[in-house]
Amino acid sequence: MTLGQSKCVVLLFAVLIGMAAQAAAQDKIPIKVDGTTPDSVGTTYIYQLREQLKASPIYRLVDNEKDAVFHVGFVSMDPDKDTRAANIQTIASISLCIENSDRYSTNPPRLRYDHFLTHWVVQTRRDRVASSAASMIAAIDKEVQPIVAAMRRRRDN
Question: What is the pTM of this model?
Answer without folding.
Answer: 0.76
